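Regression report. Comparing outputs from two consecutive submissions.

Submission 1:
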Amino acid sequence: MTSRARIAAVAVVVPDYDSAIAFYTGTLGFHLAEDIDQGAKRWVTVEPPGGGARLVLARAEGAAQTAAVGNQTGGRVFLFLHTDDFHRDHAAMLAAGVMFEGPPRHEPYGSVAVWRDPFGNRWDLIGPTP
């Protein structure tokens, strides 16, 4: 492996493209990076405002993928969204209707609050310790 390798994207299985695009771009303010029609499916990627790895929004196909929506990691936190201003972004997400599982807590690595996207995926909002 070369020293220039990086994780560019992570697939998130969603029930449909448009509701996922609406949540990630509308509610969270992510940028719609790509939405390419491929006939039976689309190549859809979104990225957070601060950059980093993109999410590939992959529409579930078939019973096994549909069953995995919101449970790709067996109930564990799946994705970690870092912010440069935890309190600002936590308040904005609350105002936008994002459902947090509990109040923010402080860990050695920073401020953290667990939330779920509308599809059931568990996320950490993290304000890293400087």
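Submission 2:
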Amino acid sequence: MKPVVIFRHASVEGPGYLATFLEAHDIPWQLVKIDENEPLPTSIAHYSGVVLMGGPMSVNDGLPWISPLLNLIREAVALDIPLLGHCLGGQLISKALGGTVTVNAVKEIGWGEVNVINNELARDWFDNIESFNAFHWHGETFSMPENAVHLLSSKYCTNQAYAIGKHLAFQCHIEMTAEMVQTWCEVGADEIRNASDSPAVQTAEVITQNLPLHCFFLNKVANQVYKYWIRGLAN
């Protein structure tokens, strides 16, 4: 089987629980560390799926790797190779497919409820899950590209997830592990402090309270979503 390619844009924003899931299902995967200036593949045709992780940058920044990565996303759609975007990754998919990424009304950092939209495609992806506590760390939001179906929303950000067939884009994070959450709180301490006036930003103490339980339930959601996503992997 061709491997799944995972694009990492920041050293602390790796695949997390997704790596655990893929290995448990004997699905090979390859990490491209954009944060370490590893070169992008010349084509996406050699992969069964494409995953884009988060990062602190904006898709609207003039970084040299953004434009070629957007082209690889478009190639994946043309070749019917499934995309999966987490936070920045979801924003990259949106921009590649004609959507826009703009400043959200408020910054979101920490745990917050997201609601599953009542439509048939959302049921396919989330089964009987009606809402769950997702992890958030973003200041921007994406619009939904043409033909996208809205899947998730929250109090502070309307577009938390959408799908276009087998392609899935998240604004929130479902890939988190307890170790990742703790690391983000450490490296992002200044950001949390500077955004403390936002009603959607929690302190590190609140974020890490009952952390194993939060991650246990989030992993269950991720397991459901990832199980559906891998059904579309290319041969």
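Expected: both submissions complete independently.
Actual: both completed, but the second showed a warning that disappeared on reload.
Relevant detail on submission 2: The longest helix spans residues 211-230.
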